Every structure is written in C-alpha cells, then in structure tokens.
Hints:
The chain is an alpha/beta fold. It has 2 domains: 6-214, 3-Layer(aba) Sandwich (Rossmann fold), CATH 3.40.50.300; 241-357, Hypothetical Protein Yjia, Chain: A,domain 2, CATH 3.30.1220.10. The protein contains 13 helices and 14 strands. The strands form 2 sheets. An 8-stranded mixed beta sheet has the order 3-4-2-5-1-6-7-8, sandwiched between helices. Strands 9, 10, 11, 12, 13 and 14 form a 6-stranded antiparallel beta sheet that branches. A hairpin with a 2-residue loop joins strand 11 (289-294) and strand 12. Zinc chaperone that directly transfers zinc cofactor to target proteins, thereby activating them. Zinc is transferred from the CXCC motif in the GTPase domain to the zinc binding site in target proteins in a process requiring GTP hydrolysis.
Amino acid sequence: MAILATPTYLLTGFLGSGKTTLLNNWLKQPEFSDVAVIVNEFGAVGIDNDLISKSDEDTIELTTGCLCCTVRGSLVETLMALFVKRQQGQVRHFNAVVIETTGLADPVPVIQALMTTPVSGNFHLAKIITTVEAPQGLSTIDRHAEAAKQVAVADDIVITKGDLVAEGHVNVANALKTLNPGAPIHNTAPSAPLALSAILGSGSLETSAQFNGPKYWQNADVVKQDDRHHHRHDLNRHNSEIGSFVLTFDEPLRWQEVAAWMDALVIAHGEDILRVKGILEIENTDQPIVVQSVQKLFHPPFALEQWPDGTRQSRVVFITKAISESFVREVFDIIRSARKPSASPSILSELELTGATS
Length: 358
Ligand SMILES: Nc1nc2c(ncn2[C@@H]2O[C@H](COP(=O)(O)OP(=O)(O)OP(=O)(O)O)[C@@H](O)[C@H]2O)c(=O)[nH]1
C-alpha cells in the first residue's frame, strides 16, 4: 500500500504576533491529538511550559497527546528523523504536522524545504497560516520584509489582538488584502479564539488540501473589483513594491503557453514572483487546472473535479515584488503572439495527475 505524504501546516507570523497563543488554543482541541508540532527554537517560541513535560529529548509528548519537537540542525533533518521514528514506532503515530516558524524567519526557505526532496515525498505542504497582530501588524510589515513575505505567501491569515484596537480588525484586514487578495482573513481574540474548523472548513487536518477551494479566487475577485472602484487601501511606504494583482482570461489557454509564461517569469524574476495561484481553463481539457508557486518553486499542477462557483474562467493571482501587472501580461502576450498552429494536446494526457486530482 502506498504511503501517503503527511499533511504539513506552516504557522508563521512576525515576532509576538500571536502564533503560540493560537497554537496553544488549537492544541486543546481533540482534532490535534494526532499532530506532531515542530517549533524552530524551543526556548524562543515558548509553548506554555505547563503543556510540555520537561525532557532533554528532541521529541516530546505533550500532555495533550501531541508530539512536539525542536529543529536541531535543519528542518529537513528534523522532519526526516520524525518520519523514521514514526516508522520504527519510536514515537506515537501522527497524521499531520504543524511547524511554527520563528517570528523573524523568511518563510520561503521553509516552504522550499517542504516542496523539495527528500521531504516532499513524505510530507506535503497543506496550508500556510500567517498571524498578523492588529495594533502593530501593519507598521511591522512596513518595516520588515520578512513580515510582508509571511503575509504574501499565506493561504489563510489570522488577525490577532483585535481586542486591543478600537476599530478592531477591519482596517488591518483591508490593508492586508492589497498584499494577498485571495487568502481568507480570520480574527482571533482571547474572548473568541479562532476555531481550527474556521481554517479547515469541512475538511480535517488530515484531509485539508493545500488548495483552499474557490474561496481564494472569490476573495481575489472582490479585491480586484474594489481596485476598479479606487477603494484600495495602501498598505505601507517601505514595502510598497510588494503588491498583488489578478489576471483573468475568458478564452481557454494553451498549456504550453502557460508553462512557457511561468518559466519565463521565474527564470528572469523568480525571487520577486512571491506567490502565484491560478485556476486555469486549458484548451481540450474539461477540468480546471490549478497552478501554484512560491518564488521559484512550482507545485505540480493538478486538476479539480469541477469549476468552483461554476464559472469557467481562468484566474491567476500574482503577489510580486516590483513586478508590474503590465509586465506580466506583456510576457504572456509575447509568448502567445508566437503561437504555433498545431493543436494543443490535453494537459491531462501530459501530466502525471494520478492522485493529484481533488
Ligand atoms: N490582548 C491580546 N493579547 C494577545 C493575543 N494574542 C496573543 N497575545 C499576547 O501577545 C503576546 C505574544 O503572543 P505569542 O503567542 O507568544 O506570540 P508569538 O507570535 O508566538 O511570539 P514569538 O514566538 O516571539 O514570535 C503574548 O503576551 C500573548 O498573550 C490577542 O488576541 N489579544
């Protein structure tokens, strides 16, 4: 029987933005009983001491039943060691992993480690969840590129400490949408901690796919409409070169041209194409095809069973640093203007999609 890769969740967010508080709430929920938690720096991250039995071991069983381990050496080594320990029965079985990064970390190397071998065969990146605190979050993003990147790559954003700001979460949420228009934005506060189910939707930690459904593009569409009506909220001054835009295409696209477009962008500007999430109507292919990248790394494309919200339209969200919408469009136009007349084969016959459809 094939061993399925373990869904792995990345919890990121700037120093003091409330990652541990959120995680501690989730650790108390029954869904978390079969989860391994990895923290970058044990002391620095400070999961509540009373949740953790004192131990010199790398891997610790929390009183809630979860496993907790520290990154000693590289994250890759830690994950592979955890995998082997599980196989050998040295740690109790776990069905999902949550990695809490240090607040100052650029999340991209961690994401890249998860998306490349040997880790990617045994663990798959399920979701990136980013915390942003309401009182100081925007000025932090303004001053620290890592904080901006943490938001840019998020699948879900959690605004914390809204209880400390008079206008609550609203202004922060509006500003964050300019950085990452598709990610659902959630709120958490001591009086109303965010339930895990808000992030997972109808899925569980084991089944929640990295593709967070139609929501991402619906959100992105709303922000695009908002831009048209000049209601866009400027996020900041110093990181103003990070921005987002959505390209839509009503006609079916050719897979080879899309692939050439993505290649060209990544080869020339990989570092600055922070995140791409697209759902595409491809010629000769009934199913919508999902493409995703984080900087230079592309997830394998996969087909969805059906179109989210029933709309057959290609939509691609770009989150970029100093790369304009017109430039990205122009690159695609140039590739398409060199179109060859031959019929495009179905992408489904080209791609190894077995097991990747969802
Ligand atoms: N009032 C309020 N305080 C919060 C909230 N979330 C977190 N805090 C407090 O903010 C401080 C930092 O929270 P942590 O959960 O430790 O933040 P963190 O992101 O894990 O911090 P680092 O590990 O240093 O990066 C703690 O004192 C928390 O009690 C919130 O929603 N409201």
